[in-house]
Amino acid sequence: MNPLIQQIREFLSASEEETKDKAPEGVCPVCWGYQAYDNKIRKLYKDKQIDVNNHTSQYMLIQDFLIQNIEGIRLKNGDVTSCPTCNTTNREYVAKHKPQHSKTEKPIRRHKTLQPLSREHHHGLLLCWKIRMGFTRKVETNRIKQYADWFFDTHLLPHFEAEEEYVFPVLGNEHELVKKAISDHRRLKRLFENEGEVEKSLSLIEEELERHIRFEERMLFNEIQKFASEDQLTLIDQHHHEAPFEERTVDEFWR
Q: Is residue 251 part of a domain?
């Protein structure tokens, strides 16, 4: 059962004396934002930090600023940061409900052999941003399509091939995470190659490519790094050589 529903049920089943002038934990205005949005505001801010080496200092700074300056009940006479009914403060609620591993586990630093692939992921995220900017600026769809096709042939397709040939075999093609990644690759290839409903395809590419890259960085690459032998990492290093990113400057529609 959902923890919030359970808390409400327990609260309603208690006696009137026990609940007078109180509110269930997680339902008061101070707590509600964490429950209602499932802590997604922090995930959103973390997502905006495009850093392949998993540095989190900027994210923690933003999170602390949010708690200190933005969150809480806004009234004409000032901010209320402690709930008058459940007596929970913002910081107390965050400390109680944040994942336990966040205090003890450090983010995995990407192995140097996989860092070039992660940097390529960065450029993939930039492609998604460029497509979004194109739509925002109402750029002619064909201009965006030409750039996306060039990026796919020049950068993304070789990246997919390197992953499938040298990186995914670390876990094997029957591993659930690898099967998902390969399925994503096939789906994205079809979207790039689709010449009909171009605007819809570009919109789906922007959404699905970003989701795929996040999945690989946060889950698949971490799992590969845990189980890869030195020989396997050496093989990846020998066959995947990082080249400087070459931009297509013919039509920088996103600027």
A: no
